[in-house]
Amino acid sequence: MATEALEAIHEVARRHKMTYDEYRILKDWLISVGEDGEWPLFLDVWLEHVIEDINTSHRTGNKGTIEGPYYVPDAPEMGSHAKISMREDEKGESLRFQGQVRSTDGTPLGGAKVELWHADADGFYSQYAPGLPEWNLRGTFTADEEGRFQIDTLLPAPYQIPTDGACGKLIAAAGWHAWRPAHLHLKVGSQGHEQLTAQLYFPGDPHNEDDIASAVKPELVLDPKTVDGIDGKVVDYDFVLDPL
Ligand code: MBD
Ligand code: FE
Question: What keyword terms does UniProt attach to this protein (predicted)?
C-alpha cells in the first residue's frame, strides 16, 4: 500500500506540474500538521470515512460512522436510566435519548454498553479543551435486562472543526467550510457482537448534506419529538448489533 499511495501522489504532482514553490508549501504544511497536533483531526476528517465504509459494509445491523478524534475510553459507568455528567449551568436544550439494543435476530442484549460523548454548546469536548470537568458530557450506560437504556443529555450544537491550525489553513486555501452537523457520538457493544461506532444527527441541520467529515448517512438522522410533561426533546433510537 505504501508504494501505491506514493505513486498516487507522484501522479498528482506530475499531472499538475507541481513547482518547487508548491513543493515547499506542501512540505511546510505537512510539518505544521504535526506541530499543531492535528494529525488525528486531519485523518479522521478526510480519511476515516472510507476506512469505516470498507470495514462495516458486511453488516446487516445498524449503520455506523466514524469515531472522530475525541473518543476517550472508560467514561464513568452511569447505569441504564441516567443523566450524563454535566455542569450545573450547562447550556443547551434537554434531550432524552432512549432505546433498545438487540442482536440481528431480535434478541434483546441486556447488559450492552452504550458509550455516549458529545461537544458542549461552545463546541468543546472534555479532555480536549481547558477548564472542563474531566468527564463532562461523556458517560458509559449499561442496558437493562431488556436491552433498554434512557439517557438524559442536551441537544448538541452545530460544530465547527478547529480553524486556527493546519487543518483550518487547508480548508481556507481550498475554499471549503469547517462545519459538521450537530452530532452525538456513540459506541455500542455487547458480548459476542461487533462493536458499533456511530454518530447521530438531527433533521434540518444545513450541514447534514455537506459535512466536512463526510460522516452523515440517512439512517443516522434522528427524529426527536416533544412529549407532554417532559422538558426539551425526546428521541427513540434502537441499536441492532451484528453477531461476531
Ligand atoms: C469532531 O467532533 C468530529 O466528530 C470529527 C469526526 C472531526 C472533528 C471533530
Ligand atoms: Fe464530534
Answer: Dioxygenase, Iron, Metal-binding, Oxidoreductase
